[in-house]
Amino acid sequence: MSSTSLLQRLRELSAVDCDTLDSEALFELMKNGHDGTKVHEKLINESIRDAHWMLSQQPDSTLEELAVEFMMVRLALEMIPSLSGYSHIQTNPRWSYNSQKTIKNAERIVSIFKHLAPSYDTKRVCIKIPATWEGLQACRQLEKRGIATLATTLFSMEQAALAADANCTYLAPYIDENKSFILCGLAQRYCRSIKARTQVLPASLTSIDDVLVLAGVDHFTISPPLLTELAATHVQDYKGEIGSVLKAAESAHVKGKGEYEVILRDESAWRLAFTRSEGGKSEGKIIQAINIFYSMQEELEAIVRRFGTTT
User: Fold this and answer.
1) What are phi and psi of 158, to 5 degrees?
2) What SS3 class is residue 247?
3) What does the record list as coiled-coil region(s) (predicted)?
């Protein structure tokens, strides 16, 4: 009788997709081939060409911004054969504190998908937006317009409660070095307790141990190397814990929606609660995350300039 792999076991407990983009996009676009040229030189040049075409329709945007968006969408389209769910694309971090700019940016990304792949169902596009007050209000409006959103850079229950209230498709607690495992369990319990449609999707998983302690959360996007390791490891050979975070969250206190209601309707109250979360650590983490994403955006725009803005 064949034995069960960790990946098979995980798929019994959670929905699992392949995560091939996110922050790796920068490094992918910077790769050089054996001849010293960029591996994605054709993709970059075509994106700059299309950005010139779109610039006349988007006078408040720059050529570099538009070219980066075309590059991101083209990379996402290359990954479609590996995906069963959404294509996730993040908005420009410049607009992390501007709802209207974020909405326009998100709608433009969807329009780029339509332009480059007319037959692709844009209902499968999910826009990743930083979980600031402004970002989550943008999510609220985008969801009303039929565009799926994911609240990213999420480090606190204050953000999770607002993301659920905004009707985000997903909220994504960051794991990485922060190891915010319990937040995933608490956020999922909260969303289910208020019957929100928002699902928990942990971000920045760095090992199969990170994945497996979270088994049972709504949804995972997992990098190809971790998927390979999960598929190659048998359940009976794994000595770690599977699903321990959700079990621990079951006994932890979770505030109800009524306890969050005041801050969900009052921007200044929400901002203060977020500032106070974890003694200021949660707000510090989102500031750091937005800075990292902003630096990546600048490097991607620098690639466009190096290829020339007069293509």
Assistant:
1) -60, -45
2) helix
3) none
Mind listing the domains of the chain with CATH numbers?
A: 6-307 (3.20.20.70)
Global pTM reads 0.90
Which amino acid, residue 304?
A: V
> Rounded distance, CA 197 to CA 218, Å?
11
Closest CA to 154 of 121, 126, 191, 184: 184
Task: Give 222: exposed, middle or buried? Use CB within 10 Å, 0-12, 13-18, 19+.
Answer: buried
> Can you tell me whether residue 130 is helix, strand or coil?
strand
Say how far residue 109 (Cα) sits from the centre of its chain: 14
Cα separation of the two ends of the chain: 60
In this structure, which amino acid lies at residue 50?
A: D
Positive or negative: CA dihedral 38, 42, 43, 48? positive
Whole-number Å distance between alpha carbons of 70 and 48: 8
Structure tokens at 276: 């106070």
d(CA 121, CA 278): 41
pLDDT in tens, 90-135: 999 999 999 999 999 999 999 999 999 999 999 999 999 999 999 9
In three-state secondary structure terms, 245 is: helix
Q: Which residues make Cβ contacts (< 8 Å) with residue 238, sequence separation at least 6?
A: 6, 212
Phi/psi of residue 113, each to 5°?
-55, -45
- Give catalytic residue positions: 128
Q: Stretch 307-311: mean pLDDT, rounded?
A: 62
Asked whether residue 2 carries a pLDDT value surpassing 60, the answer given is: no
Q: Could you tell me if 25 and 75 are in contact, meaning their C-beta atoms sit under 8 angstroms apart?
A: yes
| pLDDT band, residue 304 (cuts 50/70/90) | very high
CA-CA-CA-CA torsion sign (6, 9, 13, 18) = positive
Pairing of strands 148-154, 219-222: unpaired
